[in-house]
User: Fold this.
Amino acid sequence: MVCEVEVESEIIYDGIHVGNRRLDLLVEKLVIVELKAVINIESLYYSQILNYLALFKIEVGLLLNFGKASLEFKRIATYK
Assistant:
């Protein structure tokens, strides 16, 4: 199994470099894993992983939150 850490991609808008985004983990080039340690998962984090899925052209992401007494996780999928 191949797991890449802090995979980075440029964001280009209308031919202009506007920033970079960095994934926490990319597993087998098929699944984005976003790690959090927060009390509550807010909609901002869902938007973040949806943007990552679109940017990296990946269909499945996992949002893992270690900020509670037990692990909280959500699977997010997009379909092309």
Summary: The mean pLDDT is 91. The radius of gyration is 13 Å.
